[in-house]
Amino acid sequence: MKDYLEILKIAGLALCAPLIALGWLVSYPVNCIVRARNRKLVETPLGEFVEVDGHRMSVFVTGHGDHTIVFLPGLCSTSPILEFKPLYSLLQDEFRIVVPEKFGYGQSDIVKENRDYMNTVEQYRKALAALNIKGPFIFCAHSLGGNEVELWAQHYPNEVEAFVGIDANLANYPCDWSKDFWFRHWRLEAFWYHLRRLAGWCRNDFRPGLKKLLSKEDLRLYRELSCKNDGNFDTYSEMLNKASASDLINGSPLPTQPTLQFVDAPEWYVKGEDGKFEPHEEDWINAHQELVDASVNGRLSYSFCGHCIHCFEFERMAREMKAFISAL
Questions:
Q1: 44-326: which CATH architecture?
Q2: Which residues pair with 289 in a beta bridge?
Q3: Can you give the residue ranges of every domain in the chain?
Q4: I need a surface site. Which of 96, 128, 133, 276 has the fewest CB within 10 A?
């Protein structure tokens, strides 16, 4: 029976591979034409371009207030400015909002250079300085953006007023981030992402929950940025630098600045019911608890909507952020 299933699997692959190749050969020139027609849309910044290390970095600034909230994206965010829009739209009347898009993200240049995390922090600082935006800042970071905030807080503590995490990846979370891990699990996937981007097959990929929150014009730009950024060199380089960033962060004490951590957890855990953790879930929660315990003013806020909490519970997040910031 197993031999029969293996034969069917091989036959299926042999049949599908030529069809996929043919589809790609048809899609690639069509995507090139569509991208050429929409080049002006992609090149017109939602905010403004500033020069950082000889390249263009896109930075969006809006709102006003006594506190400045800087949003930092997670890995492979197509458009941080659009991704965070549902959340910062509820905050911009009371706070100044800044969304810098690091290289390889949004409308910023793809630089095809080593994406060391500390260097990324320095480039963020240069972009903010170029616009005369001064700290201290309240950082609101999703996923791997949390590591950038940890580095910022450890090396420039006076510039970090507080850290709001959106299911943030923290360096004290025990996981194999080695280059061997990424090569094993992402090498073929990265190549597939590259092929998808060239063919335009990534146009309908959105962060979970985000598609229904954006306007028609925003969706059009998001789709074009997917074809620019999906699986690009800079994001892949970030993956390969994750282990060294974690080692650097773990070599110093946890940041002590005030923190509000929005954390995805199992539904049974959030509701206070009995249940059993899946692998690594308890470690994820414990890592955030350790950061909160180290903070002079920290708290956790649990959700069970998935990793992109800001695309589902942005209204609740805005309310809790306002209350948290008012107490700083």
A1: 3-Layer(aba) Sandwich (3.40)
A2: none
A3: 1-37, 44-326
A4: 276
